Amino acid sequence: MRYSALKVLTQGLTGNKGWKRVWRDPEPKAEYDIIIIGGGGHGLATAYYLAKEYGLSNIAVLEKGWIGGGNVGRNTTIIRSNYLLPGNQPFYELSMKLWEGLEQDFNYNAMVSQRGILNLFHSDAQRDAFSRRGNAMLLSGADAEMLDQNGVRAMYPFLNFDDARFPIKGGLLQKRAGTVRHDAVAWGFARGADMRGVDIIQNCEVTDITTKNGVCIGVETSRGVIKAKKVASCVAGSSNRLMAMAGLRLPIETHVLQAFVTEGLKPLLSGVVTFGVGHFYISQSDKGGLVFGGNIDGYNTYAQRGNLPVVEDVCEGGMSLMPMIGRARVLRMWGGQMDMSMDGSPFIDKTSIEGLYFNGGWCYGGFKATPASGWCYAHLLATGAPHPTATAFRLDRFKHGKMLDEKGVGAQPNLQ
Ligand SMILES: Cc1cc2nc3c(=O)[nH]c(=O)nc-3n(C[C@H](O)[C@H](O)[C@H](O)COP(=O)(O)OP(=O)(O)OC[C@H]3O[C@@H](n4cnc5c(N)ncnc54)[C@H](O)[C@@H]3O)c2cc1C
Question: Is the pTM of the predicted complex or chain greater than 0.90?
Answer without folding.
Answer: yes
